[in-house]
Amino acid sequence: MNGSAHSALSREEITLKRGPAGLGFNIVGGVDQQYIMNDSGIYVAKIKENGAAALDGRLQEGDKILAINGQKLDNLSHSAAVELFRSAGEDVHLRVQKGPVMQNGPTSSRADGESSSAFGTWTMYTVAALAVITAVGFIAYKRLQLHPRGSRGPF
């Protein structure tokens, strides 16, 4: 290898025992909600304090989950992945890819037992903020055209 990030990636098999609060981590990703650009994989977004994953200590934020109980997570929607976690039973075997990743979204929101649209909400707010900034800039530009410096007018 030439020292690329791929050389730092490794795989690990982890078995977690579901606790009272589930497996104790949030997930992001899926074909419908990509967390990593051009990658529809499922990633660990947050490890919940004192949850099963935190107590075990091997699963880390940013890990890519490749399979649950032998079932690959390739080409699944986010909600389908959540359902696999929910129905996985008490002892859950995970195949995980460890290593550095580049994020293009938030690191919270989607729990192993919850489905949410925080990434979509985050995107919606970003687009709305850009629209407001563009509108304010356009209005300021038009005012300058109508009332050049030194002219009188309401500002």
From TrEMBL:
Q: How does it assemble?
A: Binds (via the PDZ domain) to isoform 2A of SYNJ2 (via the unique motif in the C-terminus). Interacts (via C-terminus) with RALBP1. Interacts (via PDZ domain) with ACVR2A (via C-terminus) and ACVR2B (via C-terminus). Forms a ternary complex with ACVR2A and RALBP1. Interacts with MAPK12. Interacts with DLL1; enhances DLL1 protein stability, and promotes notch signaling in endothelial cells.
Q: Lineage from the top down?
A: Eukaryota, Metazoa, Chordata, Craniata, Vertebrata
| Compartment list | Mitochondrion outer membrane
Encoding gene, per UniProt annotation = LOC107654920
List the transmembrane segments. 122-141
What GO terms describe the biological role, i.e. biological process, of this protein? cell-cell adhesion; establishment or maintenance of epithelial cell apical/basal polarity; receptor clustering; receptor localization to synapse
Q: Which GO terms describe its molecular function?
A: protein kinase binding
Tell me which Gene3D superfamilies the record gives: 2.30.42.10
Which keywords does this chain's UniProt record carry? Answer: Membrane, Mitochondrion, Mitochondrion outer membrane, Transmembrane, Transmembrane helix
What does UniProt give as the signal peptide span? none
What Pfam families does this protein map onto? PDZ (PF00595)
Q: Does the keyword Membrane apply?
A: yes
Query: Which PANTHER family does UniProt cross-reference here?
Result: DISCS LARGE, DISKS LARGE 1 TUMOR SUPPRESSOR PROTEIN
GO CC, alphabetical: basolateral plasma membrane; cell junction; mitochondrial outer membrane
Domain spans labelled PDZ: 13-100
**PROSITE patterns registered for this protein in UniProt:** PDZ
Keyword check for Transmembrane, yes or no.
Answer: yes
Protein name, entry field:
Synaptojanin-2-binding protein
